[in-house]
Recover the amino acids of this structure.
């Protein structure tokens, strides 16, 4: 069987989202496989099965890549994106992720093409080399992937599950990330299937969500990636280390993943608020957590829009709850970030009144609110009043046993700066305690961990120890 003469033969040819969602999935099901099977399972039957009797336009031998067996512009064309993924992913997750990406970007699935290695590299050739007892040389694979990354210019990194991506455990995925990040003209976007978005959004209502998120991101370390050929791992990690550096690449991946998750949560909250499926305390929790994510990324305007949209869904009656009080606190924080101190103070007053009526001012939530009130006062130049509130918040935390938490670390750092501004040496000790607490909790290498280090540096600076300040900065 010859490939149709209209089929593209470029090494950058890809398959359309439309083809994957229709004909490809149909083939998977027809041979007795399922969309829950991974690519290792379906590759011999579907991918090589489809192309076994097709003449490869490059080698002129029977047995081509899957994409060479396709024709028709609704199925095959010059790739718009390169997909960076793992063969261990389920077929359905990959197909759904790309379909959702097309929808999100308002792109036609019939004319949006993806370069996917298992479909676009001649697997017959790979198997032939392997059966001869050889391995495809590292440099050949390197050139193959590098040419695609640079030639296509847009990489989609498919990460599943959100809290421990299989993707990050494969060293060739690390190489693709490295190539995309090193090339200043290449864009890198994280994508996920709708099912994973739902799982992530559902987890937001968990009270320990934020701490778990930072823990999950911190565990993402590309140095732990594996390869079927051990030498490949050594060579790729050496390339990365000599280039952008593994630690820097880790931070890029964490930041892109966090950015994608925050956008997904923001969109999901808006969708559920607009259709009425998110209301009351559930809405207060989801919107507060999502706004906190947006705050971490400096997306204060987006948080403002979400918080405004949530007011009608949350404050539907006069009932006072801790969840509503906490949402008022987050609203106040957002005003503070935007430099609207008076509006922030008014929101904090609403939160305080709710907690007072509930008898919860002397609680963890009360301490969190007092910390925000203190920061608001400090921003307005009322440092002594701010320090009094910081100290009261610390007393409450000690009394209710929440002095060994991430929030407590932030409080110690902020209190330390206020004390140093008023000439108290206790400030440096408190800021150092904040750093030590972050280390003990395994949460120093996070956005708020960086904030604590910055506050410690400010304390050193105000006390005249510039070398120590620079070390913390």
């Amino acid at each position: 069987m010859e490939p149709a003469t209209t089929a593209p033969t470029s090494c950058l040819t890809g398959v359309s989202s439309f083809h994957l969602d229709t004909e490809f999935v149909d083939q998977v099901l027809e041979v007795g496989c399922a969309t829950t099977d991974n690519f290792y399972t379906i590759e011999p039957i579907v991918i090589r099965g489809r192309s076994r009797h097709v003449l490869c336009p490059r080698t002129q031998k029977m047995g081509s890549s899957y994409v060479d067996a396709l024709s028709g512009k609704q199925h095959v064309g010059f790739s718009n994106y390169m997909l960076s993924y793992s063969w261990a992913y389920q077929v359905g997750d990959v197909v759904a992720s790309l379909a959702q990406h097309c929808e999100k970007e308002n792109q036609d699935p019939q004319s949006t093409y993806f370069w996917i290695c298992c479909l676009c590299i001649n697997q017959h050739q790979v198997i032939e080399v392997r059966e001869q007892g050889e391995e495809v040389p590292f440099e050949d694979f390197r050139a193959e992937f590098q040419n695609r990354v640079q030639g296509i210019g847009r990489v989609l990194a498919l990460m599943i599950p959100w809290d421990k991506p299989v993707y990050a455990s494969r060293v060739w995925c690390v190489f693709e990330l490295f190539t995309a990040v090193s090339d200043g003209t290449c864009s890198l976007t994280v994508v996920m299937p709708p099912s994973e978005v739902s799982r992530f959004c559902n987890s937001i209502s968990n009270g320990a969500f934020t701490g778990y998120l930072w823990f999950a991101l911190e565990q993402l370390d590309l140095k732990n990636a594996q390869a079927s050929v051990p030498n490949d791992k050594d060579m790729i990690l050496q390339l990365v280390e000599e280039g952008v550096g593994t630690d820097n690449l880790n931070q890029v991946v964490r930041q892109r993943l966090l950015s994608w998750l925050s956008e997904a949560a923001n969109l999901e909250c808006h969708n559920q608020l607009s259709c009425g499926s998110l209301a009351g305390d559930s809405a207060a929790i989801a919107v507060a957590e999502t706004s906190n994510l947006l705050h971490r990324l400096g997306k204060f305007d987006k948080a403002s829009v979400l918080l405004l949209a949530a007011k009608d869904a949350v404050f539907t009656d006069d009932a006072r709850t801790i969840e509503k009080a906490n949402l008022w606190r987050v609203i106040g924080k957002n005003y503070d970030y935007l430099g609207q101190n008076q509006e922030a103070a008014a929101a904090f007053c609403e939160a305080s009144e709710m907690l007072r009526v509930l008898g919860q001012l002397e609680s963890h939530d009360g301490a969190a609110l007092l910390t925000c009130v203190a920061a608001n006062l400090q921003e307005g130049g009322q440092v002594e009043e701010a320090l009094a509130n910081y100290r009261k918040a610390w007393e409450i935390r000690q009394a209710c046993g929440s002095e060994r938490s991430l929030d407590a670390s932030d409080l110690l750092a902020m209190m330390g700066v206020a004390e140093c501004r008023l000439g108290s040496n206790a400030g440096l000790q408190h800021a150092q305690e904040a750093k030590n607490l972050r280390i003990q909790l395994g949460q120093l290498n996070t956005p708020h961990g960086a904030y604590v280090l910055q506050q410690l540096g400010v304390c050193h600076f105000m006390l005249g120890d510039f070398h120590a300040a620079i070390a913390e900065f």
Q: What stands out?
A: The mean pLDDT is 88. The two ends are 65 Å apart (CA to CA). Residues 405-473 form one domain.
